[in-house]
Amino acid sequence: xxxxxxxxxxxxxxxxxxxxxxxxxxxxxxxxxxxxxxxxxxxxxxxxxxxxxxxxxxxxxxxxxxxxxxxxxxxxxxxxxxxxxxxxxxxxxxxxxxxxxxxxxxxxxxxxxxxxxxxxxxxxxxxxxxxxxxxxxxxxxxxxxxxxxxxxxxxxxxxxxxxxxxxxxxxxxxxxxxxxxxxxxxxxxxxxxxxxxxxxxxxxxxxxxxxxxxxxxxxxxxxxxxxxxxxxxxxxxxxxxxxxxx
Length: 246
Hints:
This protein is an alpha/beta fold.
């Protein structure tokens, strides 16, 4: 299938490893120039080199995506480097484990900042550039907890569902606006995949199948493609059938 991504420019945040890196690699494989980001310079440089060795055009930005000022800076620097922006894949590391009555205000605020506000800020910064080009794709990497909350991840459950509510509203706003009618906004919601975070959370213990991050990245690439033009305001669960919610 021709995805129509050759020559596009994508910004993928928190993308030096795990599902963010898988998304950046999949987009690069389809011909996108990619702007990647991470907090740790060493892992960021390693990821950039892997992508370049595969033939991708890469711009690496070292910063913490959860800092309030970083969204505009990441977008503006990407546009300054490549001259345009067509795709935003917003990703940030997930919060720690904790049951509902074990988490405090500080940890809740941190989770909401990282896994809700960060994506909102990035989308707000990106939309004017997407609109000026007459085409755009926004994809938020969330979690399958948006459709079935997980018992020991109260922080993630709270922030991700809040993001889903905002995204559903924003997707309708984009679809209704003539100047941004070619922009779509979707969530992609992974279940357990073979990443460092899943190992930290103990998901390697065998409670269910583990997905391949590279396969997940290809789902993101499709949602960012030309053929996905009529997929908007959706939350696509990628979990190997582990979610029981209808």
